[in-house]
Design goal:
It contains ten helices and twelve strands. It has two domains: about 170 residues, Tetratricopeptide repeat domain (Serine Threonine Protein Phosphatase 5, Tetratricopeptide repeat), CATH 1.25.40.10; about 180 residues, Hypothetical protein YwqG fold, CATH 2.30.320.10. With about 375 residues, it is an alpha+beta fold.
């Protein structure tokens, strides 16, 4: 049976209970709706009504009220006043956590605590560490318990993470996140990619994702076409070697001219960029006009057999050609890109992009095929 907080507001009340005078000029409409939602949830001065509580939390949450976002998420998680919905729960609690709400960080860690998905388990642990670093006593207690838990099943190195957090090594923690959080952290041979439309987080350039901000290091510049026009950033994947790709690939990025849409390797307007080493201390964000944060998508990786020929976007494994097999001799298959509506990506007439890499010459190859 899944673990559920039967009274979600109790879990968050340490950070979300409010006591104020209605005459306080600093009190916002969102504060008032949050306070009334809290009263309806517990029946304080009004008849208890979970539905009204959830609706009031929703009104306040949509105005950016972090505590209301957290409580609304927990209502979704436990089905109190709303239909039970894990996706909505994570959406709202994560919004609060990204605003720095410590209780939301702890709640998100709790929601992810028993998930079978390694990527979410990692995120839960990272949020738990951030909550503990900010003095949350329950988060600290849970971290002490985690020290005695075997996280090998999801590829976590909890002790290393906790040590970095306790030492205040923010860059070290970020580096760990790049190494172990973006992907499942074990060799899959190949993986299908599922894109999930999301709000772009502050450190998106340190994560595997589509659109938004790519990773750059100091001294680098945005890739351009021969005419000097900036290429569009399509996606990046850290630790690409987990997917049966050459072991020297620590980060792979793809840029493309979405206006001209070149079809062949000899054409201008595309770039496969490979990093063999990553230095977080030198990481920077470049933000030209063509950075499309509204199209930002997180990536879920679904392991598949290296011999499986998928009809979807995938990294590693074997390509599924729309027309004739054009695999170049001496090159290794990297990835294929299907049309991805969430990220606003379309290749000709329902086409597919195929890419290859020669680890000896470091040359890359590309082709677009369409129906």
């Amino acid at each position: 049976m899944r673990k559920c907080l039967t009274t979600p507001i109790e879990t968050t009340s340490r950070a979300t209970e409010r006591s104020f005078s209605t005459n306080d000029k600093n009190i916002t409409d969102a504060d008032k709706k949050f306070d009334m939602g809290y009263r309806y949830y517990y029946g304080e001065g009004v008849e208890q009504d979970y539905t009204k509580a959830a609706l009031l939390f929703m009104d306040a949450a949509e105005q950016g009220h972090a505590a209301a976002q957290c409580n609304l998420g927990m209502c979704y998680y436990c089905g109190k006043g709303t239909e039970q919905d894990d996706e909505q729960a994570v959406y709202w609690i994560r919004k609060a956590a990204r605003q720095g709400d410590v209780e939301a960080m702890f709640c998100l860690a709790t929601v992810f605590e028993e998930t079978p998905e390694a990527q979410k388990a990692r995120e839960g642990l990272l949020w738990l560490i951030l909550a503990a670093k900010q003095g949350d006593s329950e988060a600290k207690k849970l971290l002490n318990e985690i020290r005695r838990i075997d996280y090998a099943l999801v590829g976590l190195k909890a002790e290393e993470l906790i040590t970095l957090a306790e030492q205040g090594e923010i860059k070290g923690l970020a580096n760990y996140g790049v190494r172990y959080f973006p992907n499942v952290g074990r060799s899959m041979g190949a993986a299908r990619l599922k894109l999930i439309k999301s709000e772009m987080p502050e450190y998106s350039h340190l994560r595997s994702h589509f659109r938004g901000n790519p990773y750059f290091e100091e001294g680098e510049s945005w890739p351009l076409t021969k005419d000097g026009n900036p290429l569009d950033f399509i996606f990046q994947i850290f630790d690409a070697g987990n997917f049966g790709l050459p072991g020297n690939i620590k980060l792979i990025q793809f840029y493309y001219d979405l206006d001209e849409q070149p079809w062949f390797a000899q054409n201008d307007g595309w770039l496969i960029k490979i990093y063999e080493n990553i230095n977080i201390d030198n990481a920077v964000v470049l933000d030209p006009e063509n950075t499309d944060s509204d199209r930002y998508c997180e990536i879920e990786f679904e392991p598949i057999s290296p011999r499986e020929k998928s009809r979807r976007t995938q990294v590693g494994g074997s390509p599924r050609w729309i027309q004739a097999d054009e695999s170049p001799g001496g090159f290794q298959f990297l990835f294929q890109l299907d049309c991805e509506t969430e990220a606003g990506l379309y290749w000709g007439d329902e086409g597919m992009i195929y890419t290859y890499y020669n680890p000896n010459t470091k040359k890359t190859w590309f082709e677009l095929q369409s129906h």
